[in-house]
């Protein structure tokens, strides 16, 4: 195990959703491909935006007077396409093992999209789900993880964030959280975290009187 998490104990775990808990990549690609064709945006212009809120992506690509319509359209496309949205390896075991009051989701999705993907994937829904609609600034700003920690009633410095995207990891570090990265959507060399593993099936969660810890498996 990498030194960064070895022997550490946490009060809570905050999970990103897309690419971390659920595999929504095919649906995301389909929706954004359709949107890009409709808006004259190239595939190159969309590169490197994983984990970034849709509104932030659109703000870089669409003139001010068209942003509201563009955001409404991508939201419509994504909510309509839930085919193949399923739990990633290790997700169900993690959410069944960890105490429900010590788990949160912090996602760059809007509230309607997050709830739709949680239902479609049938993953257990934590009581604390923070979406881009709940914060002033989305990832890579720390706001989503700070809000999740507040919702759980814990110190961000005692939280472990699980992410698959550089923007999310940047946000977690800015919030003062420890980081676990999964290589489900991003090459390992681009993920700067305390520990990097293939997916959630590569770790075993342990819950004790002092808190939550994890060890690698396999």
UniProtKB/TrEMBL annotation:
It holds the Pfam family Hydrolase. One of its GO terms (molecular function) is sugar-phosphatase activity. SUPFAM superfamilies: HAD-like. InterPro entries: HAD-like_sf, HAD-like_SPP, HAD-SF_hydro_IA, HAD_sf, PGP-like_dom2. This is Sugar-phosphatase. Coiled coil: none annotated. It comes from Auraticoccus monumenti.
